[in-house]
Amino acid sequence: MILYPTLEADLTCPSRYVRARLRKEPTLAPFASTVLGKEVHERIASSLRQGVVVSQADDPLRDVTGGGGRPVHRKTFQLPRRVMLSEGEKLDSLLDRAQKGLARFEADYRPGLQGEAHRVEEFLAWNLELEGELVRFMGKLDLLLSQGEDQEVWDWKTGNPKNSREQLRLYLFLVYGATGNPPRLARAVGLESGEEVVEVWSEEVIPWGYAWLQRMRKSLSAALTNPRALNPGPVCRYCPYAHACPASAAPRRYLLDTRTGEVTEVAVESLASE
Ligand code: SF4
């Protein structure tokens, strides 16, 4: 059984979890916001690994000189041919937000992180036994900074970080379990707003974390016994199957052809007719 820090959110709707995570059923197109969020994370990771200025541009390929006189390759954001937009979203403003997030990272964070020993986008896994059942608790950390024995977890957020407290505590618990060395703190950084949320390590994280794992183990078992259960609500907004779901509470959604600019509203029967 595999548990991970964002599992509780994924299990909000069992049907969505099973289709997306277990069966990996195809979708019409990825959401533009998801694609750009991933690219922002990848550019930050690459900047940290190579010690160079983060690439921010969304204009034609060109080389400029970055920090330390090293060349930096600036390139356009990599969008697939078709992306999904949720009602009210515009690609231009999503691109603008992605660039602003990268600019904030470059101005406020990356220069101060240089010279530290760090692990970037690294998977940590902790195998343990809960009431006789083997469980693997795992997660990917955006950044684990080390200064001697001191460790800090950093988590970049392209959205608002205010609801990140539980996730940060789970990162603290995961590093503690996987390495035996609990971090001093975990920090979520809102790249757009500059807001930060910080959770500091304390011994209380340990029983709290075990209780969370037990709860998730039961929730996951319950979801697997009823994999068609639907639970409509805010989670539907970015559900890839909403247009083929009779219970969907998602707002309208649109397919954008990124080459021609053509926009098509996604009809409810789109998947059924494929
Ligand atoms: S649209 Fe909503 S209720 Fe339907 S599968 Fe997706 S998340 Fe569940």
Automatic annotation (TrEMBL):
Matching Pfam families: PDDEXK_1 (PF12705)
Superkingdom, taxonomy of origin: Bacteria
UniProt cross-references to InterPro entries, sorted A to Z: PDDEXK-like_dom_sf (IPR011604), PDDEXK_AddAB-type (IPR038726)
Gene3D superfamilies per record: 3.90.320.10
Domain PD-(D/E)XK endonuclease-like: 7-246
Protein name: PD-(D/E)XK nuclease superfamily protein
Organism: Calidithermus roseus
High-level lineage: Bacteria, Thermotogati, Deinococcota, Deinococci, Thermales
